[in-house]
Amino acid sequence: MTKLKVGIQLYSVRQAMKADPYGALAKIAEAGYKFVEAANHNADTDDGFGFGVPANKMKEVLDNLGISIVGSHINPLKLDRLPAILDYHQALGNKQIGCDIEFYPYNDLDYVLRRCDLFNKVGEMCKERGMRYYYHNHYQEFQKIGNKTIYEIIMENTDPSLVFIELDTYWIIRGGQNPLHLIEKYRERLVLLHQKDFPQHAPQPIVMYDGVVDPNRDITDSIFTMTKNPLCFTEIGTGILPIQSIIDAAGAAPNLEYILLEQDHSQLDEIESIKTSMNAFHKFSNIEFNAG
Description:
Blueprint (H helix, E strand, L loop, with lengths): L3 E6 L4 H6 L1 H10 L4 E6 L14 H11 L2 E7 L7 H11 L3 E4 L9 H20 L3 E5 L7 E2 L2 E2 H7 L6 E6 H6 L4 H7 L4 E6 L25 H7 L15 H8 L7 E4 L8 H12 L5 E2 L4
């Protein structure tokens, strides 16, 4: 079984990154994180990292801090912007980019299939550069069109050699699915893993479709935001999700190296939050924090 390298998704510290990206990265390194995944939600107008930072300067900062970038969310996906964004990430030494909240609400089957075509095109552009493209889920992908989930439709209509996946186990569970089953089913396509945690005493049921959101309605961005309760997140390793079982199952995925801690909301300062998560995460086995 492969030990998973533990990193951090920079969305967890987005306010610190926005205020002072270099200073925030230094604090992340001081906290002990060596691997980061970026989250650029301004990819139609911004650089490939999302903070207006030139690639050569960012590469210098990352190298000096001993940090490696192992992925990045790029939203929105626009084919005309991608070459410059891929140039940027290649300059950083990043070998893969992905997307997360890219195209919901899902409307109908034809719409989903058109997005699958786009994902294949993005995957081809990445492959031509020796890079990979991956898709990150939320809970909406476990709505259904007919008798299949959106996620099943995406997996069946994208090329496994072009479109890989980053499974977010928190959102899988909140979508009413079993992450262990999905890890096993799609193990060949799994290249990154997101790990959040759910608090023991949360104000919502763990499954969003158990009275929080109607699974048969269009889940717009505003609905997603309004129903995402900040008190339903806790520092990773302090909640109730079956994290050790997830790590054990994921360790058999042949293309997976990294498990990335991510927290959408915290009652703590962002840097204190990621420190707390790191300290709590040390109790798990088959992981490593400082491997090269």
